[in-house]
């Protein structure tokens, strides 16, 4: 009986040992898996890829080494403090700012668009409009990123289809050839993009806005005016009255409201053409690392080497008042005096007495407003004194004003991380830029009166003095872009398209 009982236990064990020796036992048996062959079989499969492309747009403005920070650091408006050692910037490496490696990131986004474009006719569409809408948005994304690529690098390979194997035969195309291609693609796209859509999805307005930029870069000025006019005459309008969160705060103004993150995709905001969605309250996998605007653009006012008091002790610290507003500035982009002062000193007024709401005291944090925030300092709450710095002559470079209304992105109530710029929606395109695109197109046509009208439309909302047609120059137009579109437009790219006109 005992022998019988033992055999009951031994035989199953021998079976398990024998099975364990079989390699097939170790092979996983997936219940399902996704490939390009079983995903892109209907519109839902393509929609999943479009969602990825829309999420790719957040790379422009989120995380510390974001693409837009590179744009402003490479312009007249800022200096990349952390990349001053240009010996660390080579064709295949970049120690601090990813001026080089971002090209690989952007080509990854081009690849996503090309997958959709190449496979669009691998299935029989029951509704041709479904096909065209998917293709139109894929064209929009590819054109958006190629416009950025040629702005960064000039001539480079244009990938028109999905790369499905190893290739070593890539050849550069001229930026003009690429402009012709994305112009043609976008002329198709604007015919099929939706007039309205959920936040974060490109619409016909976003299509015409991008097409106007492409026409302008391609020196097709009549078409640029026409495309911009379709946007301006469409379902959009500049915001000229208080709205949204904080609208009841009498100290603020419409410019402040325009740039509150909760207002950018609000139904009240008729100026938004396209803005991505990024919310702290979303699941961790659905949100980005954050905007990092306070880290990227604000100065290192809190640092021990900068904020010393008269006793040589720390007068400024990374805690308490100021820290919750200005955050832990790095900065990756040290804003120049040209951007902070020069472009505002027009019509006989200085930055301390400007009627322009975009430089209003409530919207900016100036050097003179900095104070010692360390309770342990003998100068607690007293104004910052640059003579206490280790190198006082560096005051004008190390401590600079902040466009607070753009950079302020405080932590959420339940967010305990270092304040660097929390999550928030951000503009890709808004109507004020469309007016400035059309103003430039009018300028190249020689129609200075119409250019002045568009410039003054934007300036009037900001309470800035009107200008006359005789005052319209290309420099003024680009100064106006810097005043209106700080941290929004890809500054270096837009300067390059102007250079191509000359």
Automatic annotation (TrEMBL):
Keywords: Cell outer membrane, Membrane, Signal. Residues 1-19 form the signal peptide. It comes from the Bacteria. GO terms for cellular component: cell outer membrane. Residues 53-216 form the SusD-like N-terminal domain. InterPro entries: SusD-like_N (IPR033985), SusD_RagB_dom (IPR012944), TPR-like_helical_dom_sf (IPR011990). It is found in: Cell outer membrane. Residues 254-492 form the RagB/SusD domain. Belongs to the SusD family. This is Starch-binding associating with outer membrane. The lineage of its organism: Bacteria, Pseudomonadati, Bacteroidota, Cytophagia, Cytophagales.
